[in-house]
């Protein structure tokens, strides 16, 4: 009779490893899709181990390369409550992915079984989802082959957004408990979001919003979602061709708009109308508009964070709830003026290293933690205790009752597992309708400092070491002093350099009083890296 060992080795041999070193980074493994089959196979084994380690709870596997080009793909694990994989396990993923032979793959797998004392009677449960890329179905097959080899039948959600998969995982693991998150199905997801949205928007309306879906999975999913929404806002969907694979993230999408700070070329913007762009797996969203002089204005993750934070603080106060701690979490890429604005609102604001897991973790310290990366990836977390207080709070006046009902709906509208472009879209639409704000009114809360993000190819990005939430370099020695000297020459300037966690590059960020100065500073700092 064949053993697990035989099964794993035989199955693994169908997915030979490319001659390459792999690393589980900020977004899992991400690279050219043709290098990935062996990696995904091995991630499947890791997912099964992780599930057993978690007592047989469901663990998710998402196959996507988000905003990256069509030829790329990637894979990452989702932990039981819908969070990113716990950091300490990333190294096991890296080691499995780099095992030199099929035998070594099995040896390391069984080593982890022993190290974590995983009992054979705890059955693993794995769910998988993927984005719309041409390479995705074959990678799902590799994942299924791995999980099957260790005797597990995974559930395949097919083509879904990354945040949907996070939502499903949390729903599956909380079913039947007092903190059940929802129905673990696309239908359940749409129901949950739309019920909250329709309640919040009852009697309200706003002008149409146009959503560029990056020709990715957000398009079809948003189309489905809109069927559940009342007609308070008409959602116009663009760039939703998922059949022409080469169009994914090409000249459109959140990353294009944020990086280039311009409209997708396919968009002819009506002045003061609202536009939004999602990224390829719909976990990021940015808004933008053109003013009456046709000048483009970006409303990025920082603007969404400040909008959400001020709205929620107002609702909490208006509900009569006191001693409620709301904080905002940002990264070094947050615009300096957004940070000042949050401080002026009297709210605590903290800075963490790049990568959602860091922000998410820091946001858990508050009753309500609002976290966003400037590029539009973020969400709002309510602590269990905060949710309990909101649910038992007794309003003293009809006005308090109204605010409290809205606050409760907001907690349902937000996908609290991870940043979710569709949920964030609905949240922004609700807030703008409540405030009766046009995009320029929203924009006028504070003025972004002009900024520039550059990337530099370097021989070895691992030579760059940072401290202070990545805002300062400790290595290579002396480089930070040179950066500081340059920054000192510009007005309202700030600049930092950090190694990317997802690409083999070093990123350079600069902001200054004028666009010209920000761009010049970025170029000069970049030149230091040569
Ligand atoms: C400047 C920037 O946008 N960095 C992105 C990018 O990380 P890097 O470590 O900078 O490559 O990809 C991450 C994963 O998607 C995302 O969390 C992060 O915000
Ligand atoms: Mg993404």
From TrEMBL:
Domain Alpha-D-phosphohexomutase C-terminal: 471-526
Keyword Chaperone listed: no
InterPro entries membership: A-D-PHexomutase_a/b/a-I (IPR005844), A-D-PHexomutase_a/b/a-I/II/III (IPR016055), A-D-PHexomutase_C (IPR005843), A-D-PHexomutase_C_sf (IPR036900), A-D-PHexomutase_CS (IPR016066), AMG1_II (IPR049023), AMG1_III (IPR049022), PAGM (IPR016657)
Entry note: cofactor: Binds 1 Mg(2+) ion per subunit.
PROSITE patterns (UniProt xref): PGM_PMM
Phosphoacetylglucosamine mutase AMG1 domain residues: 189-286, 300-437
All copies of domain Alpha-D-phosphohexomutase alpha/beta/alpha, residue ranges: 59-88, 122-176
A GO MF term: phosphoacetylglucosamine mutase activity
Binding, Mg(2+): 66, 279, 281, 283
Catalytic activity: N-acetyl-alpha-D-glucosamine 1-phosphate = N-acetyl-D-glucosamine 6-phosphate
SUPFAM superfamilies listed in its UniProt record: Phosphoglucomutase, C-terminal domain, Phosphoglucomutase, first 3 domains
Family to which the UniProt record says this protein belongs: Belongs to the phosphohexose mutase family.
Catalytic residue list: 66
UniProt GO BP: carbohydrate metabolic process; cell wall organization; UDP-N-acetylglucosamine biosynthetic process
Organism: Dactylellina haptotyla (strain CBS 200.50) (Nematode-trapping fungus)
Cofactor(s) needed for function: Mg(2+)
Function: Catalyzes the conversion of GlcNAc-6-P into GlcNAc-1-P during the synthesis of uridine diphosphate/UDP-GlcNAc, which is a biosynthetic precursor of chitin and also supplies the amino sugars for N-linked oligosaccharides of glycoproteins.
EC number: 5.4.2.3
A Pfam family annotated for this UniProt entry: AMG1_II
Residues that, per the record, bind substrate: 373-375, 498-502, 507
Keyword entries, A-Z: Carbohydrate metabolism, Cell wall biogenesis/degradation, Isomerase, Magnesium, Metal-binding, Phosphoprotein
Top EC class, one word: isomerase
Pathway stated in the Swiss-Prot or TrEMBL entry: Nucleotide-sugar biosynthesis; UDP-N-acetyl-alpha-D-glucosamine biosynthesis; N-acetyl-alpha-D-glucosamine 1-phosphate from alpha-D-glucosamine 6-phosphate (route I): step 2/2
Protein name (database record): Phosphoacetylglucosamine mutase
């Amino acid at each position: 009779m064949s053993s697990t060992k035989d099964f794993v080795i035989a199955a693994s041999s169908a997915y030979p490893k490319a001659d390459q070193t792999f690393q589980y980074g900020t977004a899992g493994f991400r690279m050219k899709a043709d290098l990935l089959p062996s990696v995904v196979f091995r991630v499947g084994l890791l997912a099964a181990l992780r599930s057993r380690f978690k007592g047989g709870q469901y663990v998710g596997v998402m196959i996507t390369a988000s905003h990256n080009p069509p030829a790329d793909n990637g894979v990452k694990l989702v932990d039981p409550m819908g969070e990113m994989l716990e950091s300490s396990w990333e190294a096991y993923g890296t080691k499995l992915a780099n095992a030199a032979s099929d035998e070594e793959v099995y040896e390391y797998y069984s080593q982890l079984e022993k190290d974590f004392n995983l009992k054979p009677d705890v059955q693993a449960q794995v769910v998988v989802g993927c984005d719309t890329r041409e390479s995705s179905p074959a990678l799902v097959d590799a994942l299924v082959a791995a999980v099957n080899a260790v005797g597990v039948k995974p559930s395949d959600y097919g083509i879904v957004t990354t945040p949907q998969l996070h939502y499903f995982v949390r729903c599956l693991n909380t079913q039947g408990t007092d903190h059940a998150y929802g129905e673990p199905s696309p239908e359940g997801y749409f129901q949950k979001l739309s019920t909250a949205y329709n309640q919040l928007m009852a009697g309200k309306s706003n002008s149409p919003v146009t959503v560029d879906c990056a020709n990715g999975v957000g398009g079809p999913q948003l189309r489905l979602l809109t069927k559940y929404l009342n007609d308070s806002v008409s959602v116009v969907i663009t760039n939703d061709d998922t059949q022409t694979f080469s169009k994914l993230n090409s000249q459109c999408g959140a990353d294009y708009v944020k990086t280039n700070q311009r409209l997708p070329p396919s968009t002819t913007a009506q002045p003061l109308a609202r536009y939004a762009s999602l990224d390829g797996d719909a976990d990021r969203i940015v808004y933008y508009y053109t003013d009456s002089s046709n000048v483009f204005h970006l409303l990025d993750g920082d603007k969404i964070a400040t909008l959400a934070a001020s709205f929620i603080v107002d609702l909490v106060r208006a509900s009569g709830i006191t001693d409620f701690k709301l904080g905002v979490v940002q990264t070094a890429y947050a615009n300096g003026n957004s940070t000042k604005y949050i401080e002026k609102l009297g709210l605590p604001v903290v800075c963490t290293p790049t990568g959602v897991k860091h922000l998410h973790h820091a946001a858990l310290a508050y009753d309500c933690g609002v976290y966003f990366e400037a590029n539009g990836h973020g969400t709002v977390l309510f602590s269990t205790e905060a949710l309990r207080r909101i649910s038992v709070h007794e309003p003293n006046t009809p006005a308090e009752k109204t605010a409290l009902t809205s606050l409760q709906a907001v907690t349902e509208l937000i996908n609290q597992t991870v940043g979710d472009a569709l949920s964030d879209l609905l949240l922004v639409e609700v807030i703008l309708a409540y405030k009766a704000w046009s995009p320029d009114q929203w924009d006028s809360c504070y003025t972004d400092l002009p900024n520039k993000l550059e990337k530099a190819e370097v021989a070895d990005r691992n030579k760059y070491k940072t401290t202070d939430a990545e805002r300062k370099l400790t290595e290579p020695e002396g480089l930070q002093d040179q950066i500081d000297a340059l920054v000192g020459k510009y007005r309202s300037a700030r600049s930092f350099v950090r190694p990317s966690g997802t690409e083999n590059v070093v990123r350079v960020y600069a902001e200054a009083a004028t666009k010209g100065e920000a761009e010049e500073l970025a170029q000069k700092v970049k030149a230091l890296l040569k």
